Amino acid sequence: MFDVAEDKRLSLMTKIQLALLTPLLIVVPGLLYRLHSATTQPTQPDKINSYRPAITPARAEPDTDFARHVEQLKKKLPSEGFSIVVQPPFVVIGDESQAAVKEHAEHTVKWAADKLKQDYFTKDPKDILDIWLFKDSASYEKNALTLFGEKPTTPYGYFSGTHKALVMNISTGGGTLVHEIVHPFMEANFPSCPPWFNEGMGSLYEQCGEIEGHIHGYTNWRLPGLQDAIKAGTVPQFKKLMAMDARAFYNDDKGANYAASRYLCYYLQQRGLLVKFYREFLAHRKDDPSGYQTLKRILRVRDMKAFQQTREKYVLTLKQAYEITVRP
Asked: Which of 132, 197, 123 is nearest to 159 (CA)?
């Protein structure tokens, strides 16, 4: 503000102008701030498959460990035409253009890692991990054999702890990539995690998007098989499923075990209990290695057989979602 009595040199017109402008100098900044805030607030997507994470560039200048790692990777590339993008804690390598590999790194890898860490994981994998994205099935099968000496047992992709690598046929979509990203984070944060929960969480997010700023799994292609198994009475009881070791889980009706685990996680998610269950299970893993007692406590049920029947009726009402992906 100014003092009219003290500033006699100002003309009457100048005084009037300043008198009119001074309140605006106070009001306008606040008004501009409000307008800026309104235009930059995130909006909710109209459709569940319309979410596209904002691009956040990978590190422009990787630190020494990543730079050294990239130099070693360049020496083992199976052929020309590969691109490399550093996206900590991963290095993404693909036999597509640099722009395409960068898009996978930013829109899928970074988004999934950030969202998983937001709700579940506090630690990154201790080692730098490679994500190999092969453009089609022929490239995937050929290069997996060349690089790692093993033929893939799945047409989609897998995580190899031995080779510190996620190996993907990216032409099948980004869902399997998100699934496999769960595993190294689970290994770093919950090393004693039983296979039902490790695969339940991974498969939950193989069909995912974002709701209210958090990662969210949707129904997917595993649903019809689980519904058929429920009708046939072949779904294992939760206590048995949760107690399975790796040999039993992966060899004894693997498809039903994956689906039953996924939709148990889905059920918890839909009731807002999945994050709480993860944290409680992690905290009590020594006393409850399968998570069965923690599940009962979180659900507040005593009769798990009756609960399983209720849960199976719920699963039979679900519909398979289509065209829901990590990004459009």
From this structure: 132
CA dist 55 and 324 (Å) reads 19
The answer on 183 and 55 residing in a single domain is yes
Question: Percentage helix, strand, coil, to 5, in the chain?
Answer: 55, 10, 35
**What average pLDDT does this structure show over 192-208?**
97
Can you give the residue range of the structural domain that contains 89?
48-189
* pLDDT tens-digit series, residues 95-137: 999 999 999 999 999 999 999 999 999 999 999 999 999 999 9
- Mean residue pLDDT across the chain: 83
**Cα three-residue angle 216-275-103, rounded to 5 degrees:** 40
Supply the pTM of this predicted model.
0.78
Q: What angle do CA 15, 21, 23 make, to 5 degrees?
A: 115
Q: What is the pLDDT of residue 213?
A: 96
257 belongs to a structural domain: yes
The answer to the question of residue 43 being in a domain is no
Looking at the structure, tell me whether residues 322 and 250 fall in a common domain: yes
Q: How many domains does the chain have?
A: 3
Identify the three-state secondary structure at position 127: coil
Tokens of 299: 């659900």
Q: Does residue 170 form part of some domain?
A: yes
Edge to edge, what strands does the sheet with 165-169 contain? Answer: 83-87, 90-94, 129-134, 165-169, 157-160
The proportion of the chain whose per-residue pLDDT surpasses 70, expressed as a percent, equals 79
Helix (H, G, I), strand (E, B) or coil at 166: strand
Mark residue 183 as left, alpha or beta (left: phi above 0; alpha: psi -120 to 50; beta: remaining). alpha
Give CA–CA dist 91/58, Å, rounded: 10
Neighbours of 137 (CB within 10 A): 14
Which has the higher per-residue pLDDT, 8 or 79? 79
Res. 312: pLDDT tops 80: yes
Peptide bond just before 89 cis, omega within 30 deg = yes
Q: Identify the CATH number of the domain in which residue 60 sits.
A: 3.40.30
- pLDDT score at 18: 41
Q: What is the rounded distance in angstroms from the CA atom of residue 143 to the CA atom of residue 137?
A: 10
